[in-house]
Amino acid sequence: MKKNDVVKLNITDVGNSGEGIGKLDGFPVFVKGALPGDIARVRLTKLKKSYGYGRLEEIITPSPDRIKSPCPVSEKCGGCVFGAWSYDRELEWKNEKVKNALIRIGGFERAFIEEIMEEPIGADSGKEYSYRNKTQLPVGRAKDGRIITGFYAGRTHAIIENNACLLTERDNSDIVRIVINHMEKYGIDSYDENTGQGLVRHILVRTGEGVMVCLIINGNKIPLEDELADELWSISGMASVLINTNTANTNVILGEKIRVLKGVDYITDTMGELSFRIGAKSFYQVNRTQALKVYEKALDYAQLSGRETVFDLYCGIGTISLFMARRAGFVYGVEIVPEAIENAKSNAALNNINNAEFFAGTAEEVLPELLASHPDIHPDVIVVDPPRKGCDEKLLHTMLSAAPDRIVYVSCDPATLARDLKILSAGGYELRNVTAADQFGRSGHVEVVSLLQRVSNTRERTITLDVEMEDYHRIVNGDDHNK
Ligand code: SAH
User: Fold this and answer.
1) CA distances from 399 to 37, 140, 376, 474 (A)
2) Within 10 A of 184 (CB to CB), how many other CB atoms are there?
3) What pTM did the predictor assign?
4) Which of 35, 116, 410, 436 has its CB 3.0 to 4.6 Å from that of 385, i.e. a possible disulfide?
């Protein structure tokens, strides 16, 4: 077996990023675009010691679960890894992914996990598409010199031209057309990552009750920007036209500074009975329908009677906090992005909620400080909803010393969730419920909601700023949690 060999492969599994996996005498080969059940002709492109990569040359026999992707650029674009799979199989795979992480990384028994896992929360029929309320389109040049926008091909920054992605709830091609026409009319260049030259980097569109357009530029001004703003304003529902300056050579899309060209610096969106104001820099769930189902599950797990003190860590603009506040005694929200905390405070006011308070800072710093300076505050429930890297170790130990009755852990990465649940379980908590949810249809990402119940009464409430690292290392040493 060597590079460039063409082999026949039975695809039997899916990798973490949605690639098909087939085995050659036990040696796993990852093939982008292949799906379980496919028999495929594959060219071996890269061979490592214990696994390899191959390029799909031909599907000899297609998997029975294959469907025709409705997207014309699905094969080139990196977005929809499951575009050619039936949605039932996608949901089933997402549920399995969570289960396997809990078993392999979390160290839980298979029988136990199968007993406590609930039915996965899937998208409503047809809503595995048309759900995204936020799109970030890179602006660049095609080989023939035209200015284009689209999406990055998987793993590279080559732009696949596409102005109307099927995942978005709004067809944004009118916005793209206006921006590109303006650029061509006045000779404004797109940003080039390799040289650091050129002006326009990304077009960010957010939709809710109205539309927000934020142009991310390598500079402070766009030539004749008022004319551009007026043209965008002619689109029905336009609520906010913004300029964001990002002059750094980085993959991070947004820079620090935001300037309003027209309208307000936020858009408003409604989830269930609550309304939220969202600024360009604040995190907001991209799929509001599915996010609401996840929040309802989190509320259900929190088992609130109206008296509890709840902490919502990694609270963003206060979505979970405000849903909880309506059923709890008091809610404290903590979030690292100051603009999001400003949004959270106005969102509490907007919804007439006055039993919630918000703090800007990292959860790992703010929680111990808050508890140490307010010995009278005892959290009954702690909710965490961290980014993919999971909770900071120090935070997990502070949570254990704070000893809430219940911890509701909402996660967008089953691997780091499993790692953290292992630590919390070792610290006197029992995993009671887990539900996988699909918030990102057609992509390889999966969301999870879980409930931990405190079972040990022996722990005193001692809040220290130091981390008990020894425990953590003993538990995870030698584990494959980093893979
Ligand atoms: N629960 C919110 C936000 C979840 S996304 C919602 O559903 O809308 C995770 C949030 O954690 C983001 O807003 C991010 O800015 C924030 N964050 C990242 N690292 C953090 C940290 N160390 N401490 C507090 N917040 C953090």
Assistant:
1) 44, 46, 16, 19
2) 11
3) 0.91
4) 410
